[in-house]
Amino acid sequence: MGYKHATHFVCLLFLIVNINTQSNIISTQDQVTTYVNQTAKLSCIIKNRNQRHVTWSRIHLINETQKLTYLLYVDLLKYTSLSRYHLTCTVDQDNKEYWNLEIHQVHLSDQGYYSCILAAVQPISKLFHLRVIDNPRYLSLSLDSTFDMQREQMISSLSLIDRSVSTIFLTIILLFTI
Questions:
Q1: Cα torsion at 25, 26, 31, 33 (round to 10°)?
Q2: Contact 133/35 with Cβ under 8 angstroms?
Q3: Taking a C-beta distance cutoff of 8 angstroms, is the pair 171, 70 a contact?
Q4: Which residues form the signal peptide (predicted)?
Q5: Is 162 or 120 the better-scoring residue by pLDDT?
Q6: 0.85 surpassed by pTM
Q7: Residues 115-126, mean pLDDT to the nearest whole number
């Protein structure tokens, strides 16, 4: 009897704590503008993350109904091989977390949409648009870098598949050694 009541008490306490600390993305900036070869910073500000996972992705719109999503980060784990992408996380005294995606040496091909998603039963997301302004001095460099960007994204996708397969094999090995 006592065990049953203790379980109900713990569930009720968990429910009360979650109601009082609802997670939310409070970033106000939707559009970021930068120049070619500069650093762009997209800031996803989260209040009360409650140990939920934060995901950054690059979104390519194919047409009005289709899109491709490239996973960049889950928390601080990098899923892209692009060395120009960096993620930092800082926490202030009000328990706000700043998940900053930085893109160094920005190319014209970096222009587009990026999303920050807070994992939950009903995920919370924030969409950012990066606008890149060309600098005529760097025009030839930018055209060459478009091909490099596409090649790096293909390698990144293949790397993600390799990581997934490696994770599955590691899980199987761990299950058989326990």
A1: -100
A2: yes
A3: no
A4: 1-21
A5: 120
A6: no
A7: 92
